[in-house]
Amino acid sequence: MKNFFNNHCSKNIFILLFLLGLCVSLCTAQSENLNKEVIENDTVKLKKLRDNTFEFLKNKDTILFKSLNRELFNLSSKMRDTSALAEYHWNKAVFFKEKGILDSCYYQYSKAQEYYEVVGNDYYSGKMLYNMAFVRGRLRDYTGSEILLFQSISKFESLNRYKSLYKSYNELGLVSTELEEFDKAIFYYDKALEYLDDLNDQTIFKEEILNNIGLIYQKMDAHKRAIIYFEKALDSKNLLEDNPELYAILLDNNAYSKLMTGDVTNLPESFFVALRIRDSLGIKLGILINKLHLAEYYAFAQDTSRALSYAKEANLLSKEVFNPRDRMTSLKLLSEFDKPNKSHYLKKYIAVSDSLQKEDRRVRNKFTRISYETDKYVEETERLSQQKTRIMIGSGIAILILSLSYFLIRQRSKNKELMFEAEQQKNNEEIYQLILNQQAKLEEGRLQERTRISEELHDGVLGKLFGTRLGIGFLELKGDSNTLEKHESFLDEIQSIEKEIRTISHELKSEILSTKLGFMTIIENLVKEQSTIGKYKYSINSETLIYWDEIQDKAKFNVYRILQESLFNINKYSKAKNVRIDFKIRDKMLNLTVADDGVGFDVKNNKKGIGITNMLARAQRLGGEFSISSEVTKGTVSTVSIPV
């Protein structure tokens, strides 16, 4: 009797749920019929908008383009057409690129890439990543550009898009060249040539990569090797007719490398031919580079007036095209050619260098903000996608229950177990993937920061030191021979510092502490040099228990920098007569103490400068501690402890 009752109830429930589902289906079908005509009309209108917007963009009709693109956005949003929204942002990116507003261009490309990623269009997503990398490269964020290019390559490789792979590896070569990673750059250009061999595209010129490889050797001062590549490209048939811009570039680069080797054959005629071609095409950046090369040629020919004239023209043109780096080059040449105005040009050189650094930092901060917003958007999209998936699964389960409820009741316990196992497996996979992603981001951030610091040292501090050295060098000092010899000695010391900063810049990228001398010898040399500047006596005490060869390079490197910064502060502020430096090791901790008998200062009322902040940061990064104690007229003691 009990079984009969249960079976009878189950059948009634099944019938009730089936009728409920049938009613829902009828209502949904009626609603769909009412909206079908409207949707079809909107679809036709959307297609026309997409086609017309692109045409007006190509024809550079700004007013109609903006109007239609706004309509495209509104209709795409209404229809929730993600591909059309991506196209809207792509159109805006191209518009801003043509206007030269690269930061807005980058933002629009990033929005388009988000939408293409959502719809699973890997090809267009990869193209947006490539375009974003291109913009970052032109704004000198080379590390960020490199990361985006690798992401685009991973998408193009799975789709066998050889032309896109060629362009990506070519851009990687350009980025690596700017990062002075020349071996990597040549490798990427060779990869680009491999993909070029698989293409039959007459719009792509192999000579472009030959020129890029030649430029690498030019940067390495291997000008004879560079000439081989330039002339190989120039030997191509019909290059002048097919691509006069590239021909002018090759002709100018080849002539410059010849000049650097002292071979003035066909000079300056080659420079002038390239200049005429670029002038006829209206390529202002090329004209600027041509005039810089002509200035150097006439300086070599000892025609100072013409060299100065071309340098001035290049300087004016660099302002017009807003090219700070070439402007710095022109200012450097002007300081060499125009002796009476050296100081004026050097001040401008330093000002442009400072503004360039500030702009680079601003751009990097903006890119970081856009990347953060993109990550937040992707997270929100994934969350909504998961929510949508859960809703669809729930709806499917409900429909399945309507048709197979009796069967599901009998199989309920078994299905619950299977669903639990599947969900558990999915969760485990997601957790594992999140861990991998987090590790990758941490490593990526570390490398980006090292590269950024390297670039700041190389492009910023080094530029300022160079300008300062030149300025001091051009001062007309009077005095006895001993004073003049010291003046020359200090100039040599600044030049030595420049070399050291350049070495540090490269070491930050390679993660190698390059030392050919013993560590204590390096320390003694440092202290000896600084004591000569500060005019104080010094003593260095190091326990025999310290085995420097067994201490990690990272620890020694940071100890050296902390000591260097302490000595700089002593020379600058303390007026000390005696300095004592002690190295001790206690409980696996390396302790450095730097004490002087100078004027001291009030630690509580004195704000921490960047030097002290840097020393503290170096110690903390190694898990150590840094402290400084001082009293007015009683000297200063700096102490650092680092685990070894």
What do you see in this structure?
- The protein has 644 residues and is mainly α.
- The protein has a domain at 519-643: Histidine kinase-like ATPase, C-terminal domain (Heat Shock Protein 90, 2-Layer Sandwich), CATH 3.30.565.10.
- It contains 21 helices and five strands.
- The chain has helices at 2-58, 62-79, 82-99, 102-119, 122-138, 142-159, 162-178, 182-197, 206-219, 223-234, 239-242, 244-260, 269-281, 284-300, 304-320, 324-337, 342-473, 481-510, 519-534, 553-574, 610-621; strands at residues 537-542, 578-586, 589-596, 625-630, 636-643.
- It is globular and about 100 Å long.
- The model is unreliable at 1-11, 26-39 and 510-516 (pLDDT under 50).
Show unreliable segments: 1-11, 26-39, 510-516
Number of helices: 21
Name of the level-1 CATH class of the domain at 519-643: Alpha Beta
What is the CATH topology classification name of the domain at 519-643? Heat Shock Protein 90
Quaternary state reads single chain
Architecture of the domain at 519-643, CATH level 2? Answer: 2-Layer Sandwich
Strand content: 5-15%
Under CATH, the homologous superfamily of the domain at 519-643 reads Histidine kinase-like ATPase, C-terminal domain
- The value of Rg in angstroms is 34 Å
The neighbouring-strand order within the major sheet is: 1-2-3-5-4
